[in-house]
């Protein structure tokens, strides 16, 4: 015959279970609210959530952190607030992108400056911020990245360097700036393109001519 359960113990157990369920629901709500706040730039709400215990390094299903989401959307004040909580500035998501890379891709120069000042990593394996800036033709950001030691010799997963990406997309100002670094003119990517041949393939004859002139200049300088 089953033992009699004390009504008070049953009430206590029920109360504890209800509290636990409420906690789980509240946590789930806080998680979604934090992600939404970062995306929308709701700095006030995000600050409150962090003060209540939400991890500043919370990530979404794709591995993008609150900082990445805010940086991608150009939410400057939100980025500033997050940086006060010392998040992992150089964390990369499942696609290999960091907050800096996403800000560069979207042309959010003010956010780029904040992240660089916070010590965001510039050089690493895979695609880099300099490659993104060169691909998009973001001259000001290219300048900032080079000033922070961005490696012009780094290669993307397809074997392209920053010069090749700028040449392919017709960004002559970026090409001119990269040529001042002594970047390799003859690097070939996985498709067999050099910066010059890729420029020609895409009809960027002015850039191709610029690259030929630079090659001649270097050859002449080397012969002296």
Quick recap of the structure?
The protein is an all-alpha fold and 224 residues long. The chain has twelve helices and no strands. Helix 3 (66-72) packs antiparallel against helix 4 (76-83).
Which key features would you list for this structure?
224 residues, elongated, disordered N terminus, mainly alpha, single chain
Which structural category do the helix and sheet elements fall into? Answer: mainly alpha
- Rg, rounded, reads 25 Å
What's the helical proportion of residues?
55-70%
Give the overall pLDDT as a whole number.
90
Q: Roughly what fraction of the amino acids lie in strands? A: under 5%
Shape: elongated
Low-confidence stretches: 1-5, 11-26
Distance between the terminal alpha carbons, to the nearest Å? Answer: 105 Å
**Total number of strands:** 0
Number of continuous helical runs: 12
Write the H/E string, N to C.
Answer: HHHHHHHHHHHH
The profile of the biggest β sheet is:
none
């Amino acid at each position: 015959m089953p033992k009699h359960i004390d009504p008070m113990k049953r009430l206590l157990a029920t109360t504890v279970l209800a509290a636990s369920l409420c906690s789980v629901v509240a946590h789930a709500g806080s998680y979604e609210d934090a992600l939404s706040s970062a995306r929308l730039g709701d700095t006030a709400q995000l600050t409150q959530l962090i003060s209540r215990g939400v991890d500043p390094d919370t990530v979404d299903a794709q591995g993008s952190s609150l900082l990445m989401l805010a940086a991608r959307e150009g939410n400057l004040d939100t980025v500033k607030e997050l940086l006060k909580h010392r998040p992992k500035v150089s964390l990369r998501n499942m696609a290999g992108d960091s907050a800096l890379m996403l800000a560069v891709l979207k042309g959010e120069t003010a956010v780029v400056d904040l992240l660089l000042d916070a010590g965001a990593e510039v050089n690493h394996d895979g695609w880099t911020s300099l490659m993104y800036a060169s691909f998009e033709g973001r001259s000001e950001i290219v300048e900032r990245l080079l000033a922070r030691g961005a490696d012009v010799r780094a290669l993307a997963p397809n074997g392209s360097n920053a010069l090749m990406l700028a040449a392919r997309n017709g960004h002559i100002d970026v090409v001119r700036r990269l040529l001042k670094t002594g970047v390799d003119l003859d690097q070939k990517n996985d498709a067999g393109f050099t910066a010059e041949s890729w420029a020609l393939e895409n009809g960027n004859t002015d850039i191709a001519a610029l690259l030929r002139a630079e090659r001649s200049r270097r050859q002449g300088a080397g012969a002296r």
